[in-house]
Amino acid sequence: MHNLARLLWISALAIFGAVGAPIATHAVSDAPVIVGLDADMSSGAAVGGRSIRRGAEVAIREINAKGGVLGRKLKLVVRDHRGNPARGKDNILEFAATPNVVAVLGGIHTPVALQELKAIHANKLIYLGPWAAGTPVVDNGYEPNYVFRVSVRDAFAGGFLVDHAVEAGYKKLGLLFERTGWGRSNEKAVNNALSDKGMEPVGLQWFNWGVADLSDKIERLSAQGAEAILLVANAREGGMSVRSMAARDENNRLPIISHWGISGGNFFADNRKDLKKIDFTFLQTFSFLKPPIPERAEMFFKALHAFDPKIEVASDVSAPVGAAHAYDLMHLLAKAIVKAGTIERANVRDALETLKFHAGLMKDYSPPFTKTRHDALDASSFIMVRFDENGVIRPVEAK
């Protein structure tokens, strides 16, 4: 859509009010059923956005090869929010008003997802979360809740990261968090996890998106006695933390234990020299080198190769968690549409809550969701990993 036309369209939505699900899902019976993708496709987290798209497209190809849903094909329509919450909200309003749109896949950014929640629920638009981990994205206070997630949940990630740090021998932890809704979600989770162990952080330093240097913040945490840094950052700012840490004297470099936001961009390529100088580990859920269910991972890899022949080895799949989560979410959505017998969003939402079982890539979902639980994964699906010298994400073996 031309930019001017798109602005006029969004303005009309703002003037006349959000369009509800019954209008948006009226359809010609043989028209494709549309799933939107609202993610960063061109900015700092585009690697993650492209991975989510790839996983969704592979699942759609499989679903359509078996006849689609209700005799209709599935189709993915992509909108780029570039990590901008306002643009993400506009995308949601556009999808909500588009005929045959049943659901939207989100992207990496928790702040974008949080900004979109009001429009999502005003329009009864199913939102499928394959990445954004902020606890309030799902625990959003809306009833009925239209958000369903196959991804990390910060309330679980905080405890997992703290456990990893303690098992590695670090008792004095400094927190280095981005100043966003995602950072605040992790502040609560990490502090709760530390409190459960009778611990507290030695300090907390906040930073904003676009920060050019984190040396002073790392120095403050070090001066407060930090033995290791818990990092919550996306790829660009995560790179700043690595460069700042690597610039310190070799004897004063602290280990960094990171949430997974760094893996959604060009983090390794931009920081490979400095990563050699520090101990950097981070959270993931899926690895082709240690997959949850090996035979399903093998089939998924073959499907990825068929979709994109340039994918020849596992290391060719950038940000594999995004692809894995999106793949499972698309299959879960298809099952819910079939169960509902319609693409009316409210009915499909109800069906997602009552699916009994799905043999997925990540796990056997039994059930995937319930009326009170819209997160399909828990800490049992988490692993800690590090980059090897070639940028391959390799699981860290437990001590």
Task: Itemize the secondary structure elements and their pairings.
Elements: H1 3-16, H2 21-25, E1 33-39, H3 46-65, E2 74-80, H4 85-96, E3 101-105, H5 110-122, E4 126-129, H6 135-138, E5 147-149, H7 154-167, E6 173-178, H8 181-196, E7 203-207, H9 215-223, E8 228-232, H10 235-246, E9 256-258, H11 267-275, E10 280-284, H12 294-307, H13 320-340, H14 345-354, E11 358-359, E12 364-365, E13 383-387, E14 393-395
Helix pairs in contact: 3-12, 3-13, 4-5, 7-8, 10-11, 13-14
Structure overview:
The chain is of the alpha/beta class and 399 residues long. The protein has two domains: 3-151 and 296-377, Rossmann fold (3-Layer(aba) Sandwich), CATH 3.40.50; 155-284, Response regulator (Rossmann fold), CATH 3.40.50. Helices cover 43% and strands 16% of the residues. The protein contains 14 helices and 14 strands. A hairpin with a 4-residue loop joins strand 11 and strand 12. The longest helix is centred in the C-terminal third of the chain and has 21 residues, at 320-340.
